[in-house]
Every structure is written in C-alpha cells, then in structure tokens.
C-alpha cells in the first residue's frame, strides 16, 4: 500500500513540475501550481521549525539541534530545487 501511495505521489508531483516548466501552458495554470508547491514546501519547513523550537523549550537540546540540522538541510534542498526549476 505504501508503494502505491509513493508511485501516485511521484506521478502527481512530476506532472505538476512538468506543467510548471512548460511555457506552452497558460500562466493562469502554471503560477497557481507553482504557488501551491512552494507553499507546501514552506509548510513542511515551518513544521520542522516549530518542532525544533518546542524541543528547545522542553530542554531537549539534542533533539532540537537534530531538528534544526534537518531543517537546514531541507532549506538548502528547497533553494537548490527551486532555482533549478526556475532556470528551465
């Protein structure tokens, strides 16, 4: 079942990214999809930030540092991915 969701998600997101990159498709379709994907990734980054802040307030320093490290890596991937997406 997990494999099915993974395949469907990959097809869905690959389709959206191809639509965003295709200049023949109307801007009225491409821009909202770009904003949707951008917001989705920002929500994920925000969740990691909230979790790391909550761990720091509970005095779980190691957990907070690990979550901040994961957040930092995700932020780097987010920036690299969208730079690549916008260049094409």
Number of strands: 0
Shape estimate: elongated
Distance between the termini: 34 Å
- Describe the biggest sheet? none
Mean pLDDT across all amino acids: 84
Q: Calculate Rg over CA atoms.
A: 16 Å
Structural category: mainly alpha
Topology pattern, helix = H, strand = E: HHH
Describe the SSE topology.
Layout: H1 2-21, H2 27-57, H3 61-87
Helix pairs in contact: 1-2, 2-3
Q: What would the keywords be for this entry?
A:
about 90 residues; mainly alpha; 3 helices; about 90% helix; elongated
In a few lines, what is going on in this structure?
This protein is mostly helical and 88 residues long. It has three helices and no strands.
């Amino acid at each position: 079942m997990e494999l099915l969701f993974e395949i469907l998600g990959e097809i869905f997101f690959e389709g959206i990214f191809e639509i965003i990159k295709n200049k023949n498709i109307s801007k009225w379709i491409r821009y909202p999809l770009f904003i949707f994907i951008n917001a989705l990734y920002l929500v994920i980054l925000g969740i990691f930030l909230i979790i790391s802040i909550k761990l720091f307030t509970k005095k779980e320093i190691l957990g907070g540092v690990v979550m901040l490290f994961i957040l930092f890596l995700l932020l780097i991937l987010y920036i690299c991915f969208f730079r690549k997406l916008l260049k094409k």
